[in-house]
Amino acid sequence: MPADDDPHRITSLEQLAALFGEVGEASAKKEVDHVHPHYRAMIEASPFAILATVGPEGLDASPRGDPPGFVVVEDDKTLLLPERRGNNRVDSLRNIVQDPRVALIFLIPGIGETLRVHGRAAISTEPSLIDRFVMQGQRPKCVLRISVDTVFFQCARAIHRSRLWKPDAIRSRDSLPSTGTMLSALTDAAIDGEAYDRELPARQASTLY
């Protein structure tokens, strides 16, 4: 059934409020307009974040990761995020050039709560700023300077439901299609999947930064 023909479709804020009820006091008060010291501790403990952006061509959400503290809390209204080597699609960066609004969600291994940050990003190639993020002798291409609008922690229910950090929830890589298998299928074998898989570990190790 097309979404427009669904008689149960929610189409107004009033319907949404009636469905879910009032926001709890704790849920409302945990949101602040700066990086509180407790929120700073979570950011500095996180080795992984999802960066969400929006632009004329659509939405993007992509992973960012490095050792814990890779996102630097410059002050209680500013975060710094290095842009490491990737696939050169630069979907996030193209969006930011056209619309600075961003959102981040930080994950910490073993911890149920996550942290959400909303703000506006600018892309900087300032040499002294980039030099602060050298890893394995490699400089990032640029650094995102994120002006913080709101910050709040997300409760652990989603992590508990997903069992994300449970050892018995970990999947073996060979239980899913390999990257080479997917690329071969998506390109009608124009990309040699077996060769891609064979070369991938060494290529990733040599181009990590």
TrEMBL record:
<dbReference type="InterPro" id="IPR011576">
    <property type="entry name" value="Pyridox_Oxase_N"/>
</dbReference>
<dbReference type="InterPro" id="IPR012349">
    <property type="entry name" value="Split_barrel_FMN-bd"/>
</dbReference>
<protein>
    <submittedName>
        <fullName>Pyridoxamine 5'-phosphate oxidase family protein</fullName>
    </submittedName>
</protein>
<dbReference type="Pfam" id="PF01243">
    <property type="entry name" value="PNPOx_N"/>
</dbReference>
<feature type="domain" description="Pyridoxamine 5'-phosphate oxidase N-terminal">
    <location>
        <begin position="36"/>
        <end position="155"/>
    </location>
</feature>
<dbReference type="InterPro" id="IPR024029">
    <property type="entry name" value="Pyridox_Oxase_FMN-dep"/>
</dbReference>
